[in-house]
Amino acid sequence: MASFVDRVVLHAFGGDGGNGCASIRREKFKPLAGPDGANGGDGGSVRLVVDPQVTTLLEYHHSPHRRADKGAMGMGDYRQGAHGQDLVLRVPDGTVVKDLDGNILADLVGEGAEYIVAAGGRGGLGNMSLASAKRKAPGFALLGEPGDEADVVLELKTIADVALVGYPSAGKSSLIAAISAARPKIADYPFTTLVPNLGVVQAGDSRYTVADVPGLIPGASEGKGLGLEFLRHVERCAVLVHVLDCATLEPGRDPISDLDVIEAELAAYSADLDIDGSRVPLAERPRLVVLNKIDVPEARELADFVTAELEGRGLRVFEISAVSHEGLKQLTFALAELVEKARREAPAPEPARIVLRPKAVDDSGFSVTRVEEDGQEYFRVTGTKPVRWVRQTDFNNDEAVGYLADRLARLGVEEALLKAGARAGAEVLIGAGDNAVVFDWEPTLMTGAELLTGPRGTDLRLEDHSRPSRNEKRERYHDRMDAKAEARNELWTEREAGKWTDAADE
């Protein structure tokens, strides 16, 4: 069973937000005391956090599907739903987060660095939060938003000070076992090392880490052998050590040709790297050459023969034997010197900058697109607000659907549909993909008696709250008195003219 995994595909699901509650408070002598339905809780998010105690992605290789907790539903009596707990996933230092297309989303370096893979959904509003002066008792609540779903690739790039590179069976595993407490697998056949090995070396007062990268062969930068799988572990190392086999029995191989091949593969691989300014390019990093296996007489003779040519290239050469430990002390102190120099010259880490990206002032927040497919016409509405509002709507509640229609009309969706050429009965889709909500559009009429109506559920003709002033009341009173006096005079005039008589006078 594998104990080291440096690449996995993680399927993350944020927790869904809890639904809001529609409830009416009831008290003694007050059967309808107003809405008291509280909001639902927010769903938890899936977060990646760097933990120095974690060295492999093996846990996510066995369990790639991770889901955060849901938010609890709101309740009556103003009891808000509990928020879902965030799911914290511990990853090694040097983990790179990519999407399925290979685009880098985050580079997690340093203890505590984190990245939110899938955000949790927001909880729905209860009818207590939806109440207003004109909507005093809403009979509906908003649904919680579903959490985000994301499929990401996690790649581990080992963070070490020194990287040992070379052909298979060059003695890299034996060397790291000789200078550190690491105990990698050692055998006399190629590709014994299938995973990178890390070791800690103490040289005087200096301590540094060494990574044993699996063997490279010609074409490794193109994916041959285990090249692309483990070349990325060289990216973050400050010093490169070429381990050359002076006792190889393969025809056509010698230390000089082995060095040229490995350098060519490193150059081809580094050409495709996008290294930021905080790290030295791979081709410019300090190098050492180690001529290994000089405990074999023929190997010692070959090492003495090629040392002058290697030094002529400006490389420091060390003749060692991982078996007899000859030359190891000088090598460890030379590596310590280079590591300390690289640490001194490394730029100081800068604090993370907070980047604010405010939305444009004239951003309507949605777009309407006319689409024709197979001779059929429909209109697609996309945007953060319309899609979120549709997700929050309970379509089994007519009042909730009416509330959605009011929100879309205020946002300007109906006006945009008219400009796009939509007519009554046109097919409209809100959202992208197969999860869009489909309905037949019926525009809101804004002529005739509809102009007398106010918000949904009200009628201005039934709500005349105007109050006359004192002068207006006085004028109305005098008008009534004048009308009564005029009526009495008219009746008295008709009586004197004999048009009618009182029965008491006969």
UniProtKB/TrEMBL annotation:
EC number: 3.6.5.-
Binding annotation for Mg(2+): S173, T193
Keywords: Cytoplasm, GTP-binding, Hydrolase, Magnesium, Metal-binding, Nucleotide-binding
Lineage, opening ranks: Bacteria, Bacillati, Actinomycetota, Actinomycetes, Micrococcales
Region (Disordered) location: 454-506
Family: Belongs to the TRAFAC class OBG-HflX-like GTPase superfamily. OBG GTPase family.
Names of required cofactors: Mg(2+)
Domain Obg as annotated: residue spans: 2-159
Identification of the protein by name: GTPase Obg
Assembly behavior: Monomer.
Keyword check for Cytoplasm: yes
Gene Ontology biological process terms in this record: ribosome biogenesis
Residues where GTP binds: 166-173, 191-195, 212-215, 292-295, 321-323
Domain OBG-type G: 160-340
Any one annotated GO CC term: cytoplasm
Residue ranges annotated for the OCT domain, each copy included: 358-443
Family annotation (Gene3D superfamilies): GTP-binding protein OBG, C-terminal domain, GTP1/OBG domain, P-loop containing nucleotide triphosphate hydrolases
Entry's Gene Ontology molecular function annotations: GTP binding; GTPase activity; magnesium ion binding
PANTHER family: DEVELOPMENTALLY REGULATED GTP-BINDING PROTEIN-RELATED, MITOCHONDRIAL RIBOSOME-ASSOCIATED GTPASE 2
Primary residence: cytoplasm
UniProt key word Zinc: no
